Amino acid sequence: METNEIINKYIGLRPLYKKLAANVSIIIEELLELHNVNFHAVNYRAKTVESFSEKIKKPKYTDPLIQLTDFAGIRIIGYVEDDVNQIAKIIEANFEIDKNHSLDKSLELGVDRVGYKSVHYVCTLPKNRTILPEFDRFKDLKFEIQIRTILQHSWAEIEHDKNYKFSGELPPEIQRRFKLVAGSLELADREFNQLSREIDNYSKTVQESAEKGDLDIKLNSTALKQFLTVRFEKLILTGLRPDFNGRESYILGELRRFGIKTLSDLDKIIDKRITGLNLKGSVYGNFLGLVRNIMMLNDLEKYFTKSHRNDWGVLDASSKRVLAKLGVDTSKVEEYLSNADK
């Protein structure tokens, strides 16, 4: 088959591979969410015609439409190496893996080299997918999945861009410096991974302590979240979101100005009216609102004169309903908020 004929044939196939990549990326995101795996991004693409045209010039491709496996590509970017390992297990359990063409790039580096690291899989959809009408058209079509950390991804993207500008080969001194940076990033990747493990272990320790009632733990965002998760499990099941909406530093500041230094201090001011709430059918909010309600119930005046820093000034209908259920004078809250705005 002539080169132009091969290219034209791929042009006709490319839309199918683009849909394949899009569908696989959706499946992967659903699997990661199902297994509660944190990930930075799932990206996909169909190989461009330009890239395909360049690749088939290599003499090793005698039948590129059969030999090439990366017409559809999906890249999964995790945060740390443990994420990559967990994601890899999920991929292996849910797709048909071509083991002869799949590899871990870190194993290729050897003990005396640093550089590009990533886990690569060549896959097809499993039979339990392709028997479904919407996936039947993708039967036996191969696609590639890459898994890497954010730091691995950053280094690979930078090196690719620079190599492109130098027509595929860097001057030796610059190449050496790139390798040194890659080595530093590899060490940083490992340290982040270890820190991530230690944070997880600390969270587990706080959780176990909270369950035992051992609350002599200094206040920090991890300890606070684990304590609230254990203490207000029933509220979470009835609508409370177990997060701070990215405002952990704000609520920690409010608690400390209120005089709360440990989880034990916080536990002592929790009113039983909060733990007895039934939030089904209502929109409540998250841990941020919960902790503020705990302080307001304990001492409304103290909260607004000591803790509050005017970083919120709207008492929405949902908050009013919850505060009213708790027996808080919402008109007094509105008055404090109004005075704070002046």
Arithmetic mean of pLDDT: 86
Q: Quick one: overall form?
A: elongated
Number of strands: 6
Radius of gyration: 27 Å
- Helix and strand run: HEHHEHEEHEHEHHHHHHHHHHH
Secondary structure layout plus pairing:
Blueprint: H1 3-34, E1 41-46, H2 49-55, H3 64-67, E2 72-78, H4 81-94, E3 96-97, E4 103-104, H5 105-109, E5 119-124, H6 127-130, E6 143-149, H7 150-165, H8 172-212, H9 221-231, H10 233-237, H11 248-257, H12 263-268, H13 272-275, H14 287-298, H15 300-307, H16 317-326, H17 330-341
Parallel strand pairs: 2-6
Antiparallel strand pairs: 1-2, 3-5, 4-5, 5-6
Features:
342 residues, alpha+beta, 59% helix
Can you offer a commentary on this structure?
The protein has 342 residues and is of the alpha+beta class. The chain contains 17 helices and 6 strands. The model is unreliable at 108-115 (pLDDT under 50).
Short structural description:
The chain is of the alpha+beta class and 342 residues long. It has 17 helices and six strands.
